[in-house]
User: Which sequence fits this backbone?
């Protein structure tokens, strides 16, 4: 019979690494802790006396647990206003071992986690295990249920998406958030000059028919007219002046945007194209079917 104290010591020696693997895959320290705890439970239930590389065995177990968790996310009904925004280390209030924080903070910013959220579960697992932890594809293949060649293709496809994404750095993400927050604040406050300051002179606003109809229904309460297409900074600023009182900054399909959700139910989503610190394009989606297809998560202050 295996000595549980001895097993616990060997497991504890691997926990920093295992948390880092799980965090990069899941983007949540809470879920990463759950995955590592589940790996411990599986270890205590398994016969591992013949396992030569316990670290490799545990990495594989954690990877499979994370893959199941990622697939479960995809299969659950959408919860657009979920608070499960990728959780940066800095947002954690509870204590984290310094060595764990150092390991996880390396190359794992919020912007990268947002990009990883756009990958399929298998792509994410293959990319994280190979590109971040140097696991060979012949070991990754059985985890994702593919051949080594197919696993290599998964990681390659994920790598192109990660390196080709616009949100490649925390600085970019933070700057986009600042622009969107400034736009919303100016809109709420009816500050025409502040709106002009964040809008490109040639900005284009597009709204679907549901958004136009909603705005028309609210005109009796002082809302300005909304057209399906508005061009130019002054016209767009006039459209939004005093309008976004209840809108909140949010991730919309992985990019910084905004959502209007009275009573917690999303009624409209705003997507922004931001270039050189200016908003060049805004799209408003209010059609329920289209809203349901969007991944929306409110960003905390």
Assistant:
């Amino acid at each position: 019979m295996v000595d549980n104290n001895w097993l616990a010591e060997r497991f504890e020696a691997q926990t920093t690494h295992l948390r880092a693997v799980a965090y990069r895959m899941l983007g949540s320290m809470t879920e990463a802790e759950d995955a590592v705890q589940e790996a411990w439970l599986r270890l205590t239930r398994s016969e591992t006396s013949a396992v030569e590389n316990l670290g490799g065995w545990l990495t594989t177990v954690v990877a499979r647990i994370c893959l199941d968790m990622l697939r479960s996310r995809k299969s659950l009904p959408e919860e657009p206003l979920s608070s499960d925004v990728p959780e940066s280390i800095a947002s954690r209030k509870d204590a984290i071992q310094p060595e764990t924080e150092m390991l996880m903070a390396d190359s794992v910013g919020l912007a990268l986690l947002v990009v990883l959220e756009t990958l399929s579960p298998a792509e994410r697992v293959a990319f994280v295990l190979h590109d971040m932890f140097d696991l060979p594809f012949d070991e990754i293949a059985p985890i994702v249920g593919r051949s080594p060649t197919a696993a290599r293709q998964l990681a390659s496809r994920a790598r192109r998406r990660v390196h080709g994404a616009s949100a490649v750095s925390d600085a970019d993400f933070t700057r986009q958030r600042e622009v969107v927050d400034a736009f919303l604040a100016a809109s709420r406050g009816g500050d025409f000059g502040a709106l002009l300051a964040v809008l490109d002179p040639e900005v284009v606003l597009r709204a679907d028919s549901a958004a136009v109809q909603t705005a028309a229904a609210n005109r009796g309460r002082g809302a300005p007219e909304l057209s399906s297409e508005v061009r130019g900074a002054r016209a767009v600023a006039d459209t939004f002046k005093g309008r976004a009182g209840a809108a909140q900054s949010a991730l919309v399909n992985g990019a910084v945007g905004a959502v209007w959700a009275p009573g917690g139910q999303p009624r409209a989503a705003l997507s922004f194209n931001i270039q050189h610190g200016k908003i060049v394009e805004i799209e408003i989606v209010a059609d329920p079917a289209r809203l349901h297809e969007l991944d929306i998560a409110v960003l905390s202050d």
Observations:
- The chain has two domains: 4-86+95-164, 170-298.
- The radius of gyration is 23 Å.
